[in-house]
Amino acid sequence: MTLRVLAAMSGGVDSAVAAARAAEAGHDVTGVHLALSKNPQSYRTGARGCCTVEDSRDARRAADVIGIPFYVWDMAEEFDRDVVQDFVAEYAAGRTPNPCLRCNEKIKFAAVLDRAVALGFDAVCTGHHVRLLDGRLRRSVDSAKDQSYVLAVLTREQIAHAMFPLGDCTKDEVRAEAERRGLAVADKPDSHDICFIADGDTAGFLHGRLGAEPGPIKDESGEVLGTHNGAHAFTVGQRKGLNLGGSVDRRYVLSIEPVQNTVTVGPRASLEVDEIVCGRPVWSGCPPLTEPTACAVQLRAHGEVLPCRAWERDGELVVRLDRPAAGVAAGQAAVLYDGDIVLGSATIARTSRTAQEAAAG
């Protein structure tokens, strides 16, 4: 069956090979590059990110080699509102967001997909390393490059209009294929870090947007151990950058209270939680779990996969870990898996030691 496919081409090797595979499969493919900044020089340059002037040129050259039409879509306003401003607002609220996940949700598979469907396209094709089988997301065969975590926020309807041609191969195989196809991006380095923070200094970026606001760093008893220039510069589990002096034992950030502008620190043991409550559950791989169900959960990108029981309660996802985890930050995604199948995801809202304390009592 021939489909009209819109191939999102970032300028990297993955999206170029994905577009080439879609065209080779006989689909009617059109390439599109997303311009995400009104001033591209304010984002990354070189090979550090995915929002550069060079990327747009690389995407156009790849489309020419593949032999498909190519366009640039200006998505700067949507990207700033739904990704950059959301990123800043989440940190200001004491949470730790994942901007790549939000970009996939709001830009690549909401704004772009909506426009693509309106223009008569059947599917959006990307170079994400994830498999799509029987309408459900599955991990890539390349576990080191698997991107199912940052796509788990997608709804069933969005997945129904998605195409991921690279989930059945490794990154090395993608590069080798790009070279055989004569794509100049075959050896282009992977993007990394946050694409809209030009120098990689997240704390500096947030200070520039939110300003400095000195406040206390306290221990669990309320004793002031030091000061900070803005609670938004910290995340749960952080150890470096606390500047508490050599007289204070090693401490980790336990919580961030934005209203009081307070950062609470403590020993690593105090980071451990075994119950996680999450908002905005999305069930793409199964019906909502109404009873505690054994599965596995991943709590951050490239994080450990933990055995758990999970269920939906009063519109929230409850995750009960089989063993405690440390450094679980509000704002991150909790993604549920059954083996390599994505069951669903939700945004972490709060954590506790409730289950352990009850068992100990």
From TrEMBL:
SUPFAM superfamilies per the UniProt record, alphabetical: Adenine nucleotide alpha hydrolases-like
Domain tRNA-specific 2-thiouridylase MnmA-like central positions: 205-266
Residue ranges occupied by any tRNA-specific 2-thiouridylase MnmA-like C-terminal domain in the UniProt entry: 274-348
Broad class of enzyme this protein falls into: transferase
Places the protein is found: Cytoplasm
Superkingdom field: Bacteria
Keyword entries, A-Z: ATP-binding, Cytoplasm, Disulfide bond, Nucleotide-binding, RNA-binding, Transferase, tRNA processing, tRNA-binding
Catalytic activity: S-sulfanyl-L-cysteinyl-[protein] + uridine(34) in tRNA + AH2 + ATP = 2-thiouridine(34) in tRNA + L-cysteinyl-[protein] + A + AMP + diphosphate + H(+)
Pfam families found in the cross-reference section: tRNA_Me_trans, tRNA_Me_trans_C, tRNA_Me_trans_M
GO MF annotations in UniProt: tRNA-uridine 2-sulfurtransferase activity
UniProt family annotation: Belongs to the MnmA/TRMU family.
Name under which the protein is recorded: tRNA-specific 2-thiouridylase MnmA
